[in-house]
Every structure is written in C-alpha cells, then in structure tokens.
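Researcher: Here's a chain I'd like modeled. Treat it as a single chain, no partners, no ligands.
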Amino acid sequence: MKRLLTGAAVVVMLALLGTVGAEAAEDTASGGPLRVKNKEWKNETFILRDGRVYGKPEALALGGRWKITEENGGYFVSVPVDDGEDRASVRLPVGKDGLADFSFFGDQAGMNFKLNERKMEIKFEKPKPVKKKKGRDDAGKKAKTGEVLLVWDPDIDFDPDKPFFNGKDKEIRRIISPGWGTYDGLNSGKRYYPVDYIEKAQQAGLLVMPMINNDFDPETTSDFLKDQKKQEQLRHQMAAYTEVYGLDGWNIDFENMDPGDARRFTSFVADTAELLHEMGKVVSVDITAIGDPNSYWSGCYDRKGLAEHVDYAVLMGYDQTSGGSDRAGPVSSYNWLERILPPLLEEIPAERLILGLPFYTRVWTGDDGRASSDVLTLEYTEDFARRHKIMPRWQDTERQFYADWRENGMRKRVWLEEDRSLAEKAGLVKKYGLGGAAFWRYGFESPDVYSALDKVL
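Model: Modeled as a single isolated chain. Structure tokens:
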C-alpha cells in the first residue's frame, strides 16, 4: 500500500493528533517537545534530542520541495529531476521512534529553522525558492596544481578524529568518496546511508562524493549500457540522492567492461554529468592506463571522450602487477607512472587528470611463473618488516624500498609503499601540472602518511 502525504494533509493530520503526538514525542526524547513559533505550523510536533531536532517524516513535505510517501512501513522522498519533468524517489532514514532528523534533512527539504534550546522553541523560516545552478563546475577553468586530494572510503569509515589531509590551503578540494555500492542497489532507491557520516565529513571541510561501481561484471554492465531506460532511471536516482543527502558530487567507478561498450559508457557518463552539472555538482570517472585496446581493463575507456564531459578523470595508478600475476613485481613504481602518464596527457587535459596512488603493496611468495601474493597495507608495513627481519634497499629506478628473502624454503619479495615512495610519486602531480591526487584507500594508511604527502602536495 502506498499513500501520498502532501503539506496540507500533514497539517490536518498532525492537528488531529494534538497533545497525543506531543506526549508520544516526550516519551521518546530526552530533550522533550519544542514549541513552534510559526502560526501556520503551530500544530506540528518537533522534539529536541542531543541538540538535534526530530519530527514526523511527513512534515518534511511542508518545505514545498519534497513529496513524502509511506510504503510498507518505510518513508520515501520524491523529488523533481530534469527541470521537473520527471521525479525520482529515495528512501528516507527514519529512527526506531519513527522520527526523521530535521537537523540534517531540513535544509534540503526547504525547512530552514532557528532553534532556541534555552527556550525550547523552534522558528521556521519561509521556504526559499530553489535556484537552479546551470553549467558545470569547470575544473578546466578553475584548476590549480594539486587542487584535488581525494581519498576513497569503500567501507564508509571516515573518522574526523583520525589523521587526514590538513586542509589549511583553501584552494585545495579535499574529497572523501564513500562506497555506495553498485548501480543496481542505487537504482532501486530503497537503500539509505548514514547521515552522520556525511555531516561529519562536510563539517570537517570535505566534499562528499560517493563512489558507484558496476560490480566489475562485463555482461551485466553491457546489458545496462544498452538499456537507455535503466540509465535514465539511474541518473534520476543519483540526482535524487544528491538533493536529499546534500552531496557534493559523484565518482563513477566502472571497470572490467567490454571494449565494444566504450562509446556507450562515454554516452552514459556524458548524460549523467550533464544532469549533475546542472545541479552544480562535481563528477569524476575512474580510468586505467592506456594499454591493449582489446583488453577489458584498458580497452574499455574512450578517455578523450570522457574527459570532455567530466570534471576529473582519475587514473588508477596501481596494480602495475596485479594480484593474479604469477610473476612478482611492484604495484605502482615511479618509472611505470612516468611511462603511462605522457600518453594519457595527449588525450586528457592535465588539469583534469587526477593521479591515483595506492596505500598498499603486495608481498610475493615463490619464483616467477609460480608466484602468488598477499596485500600489505601501509598501516602494517613497519610491523611486517620488523617481524620478518627484512632489510629493504632503496631502488633508484622504481623509487621504492625492495626486499628479497627466504622463508620456509620459499622465495619472498616485496616492493614497499611508505611515506618516501608515495611522496616521490605524488611529486608527479606538480611535475606534470595535474589536477591533484587520489588514494586507495582510507583505512589502509599509516598515521603519518598524510603529513608526509601534505608537504609534497
């Protein structure tokens, strides 16, 4: 069963609830009910809990921007997209007490208010008309060397109390990119995400640009890229999530695709970017180095075409030697990056290319032809070297520390990633005038790596 709750219906419904609603609210809130000063909304019930304002989800419709529907015990926000011609809906996070967080969602819904905790009262301002931003936030015109510092956060673990890029230079865009799953999950509109994560990140001065992926499945991705209706639905869902959650943009991470779908992927990205740019949002797309045109990993991108539509193309400058290789090698050596960057810069303007670097490496076991590997993150590198009693030697060509030793009769090798090797590679951002740097991934870093990179970037 699905029912639509408009602003007028909400007022009538909550007026009928009267003091019953207030008593129920008082039971669920440590701060108790708030007195509403506005005459037109005086019958609304809002509560204060831990310094935040909560209210019935239906009341968000009073801002005039959203329609709220209730379906199978869940609440959905419906917002206009594509100049209001179409609508998309996303699920609204609601607490166990059935209340929505107006301190977070109020602004986006047009429910701007002033809170007086001492008097326990709340005053709503008149909803302001939405000013549509037109044109893209053009990185090509605004970018400066090192403007972007992006860190992917697939596990949505960002903690403002842990080390991060310091953000003292206001010209630099610091971006956190939480993993919001696959396009299938997003397309349903039924997923919801932690608002405290977004709020904490933005309060720390970060832009929040979720990463959406294709599950690296070439067959289902090909079906999706041939289905205009599914693509349109996804664009609309991304726009709806952007408005409801107050996002700053998106990172599109589609990998392992049929090279025959390269132009279809560019078309999808172009249409998605156009819609998000009209909202004033930033769009980035992840790419690999130029390689075999028939490869599902390198031949699936029309890099020049993508760069014409997005704000940033992010080069995944790692897995020079993949985990599936039977021959040992570095994950991201300096000389390898020096080889792959110039051809890319013939297709992508430098100020729109972001250099992605790894917060991990691989420890190899066995001789070439039979080697296998395990991931070693920066966080545990120092402890690993100490436990295995290895004595790494600096390699001038790769600009990494390298170690070769034997354990239980087996050959072991590692090209380490740590502060010095990453700083050397990050120096390529300035050398080539790139738009910035990105790092895979949050949670893999060592405590001091950000301060070391800050000095370079």
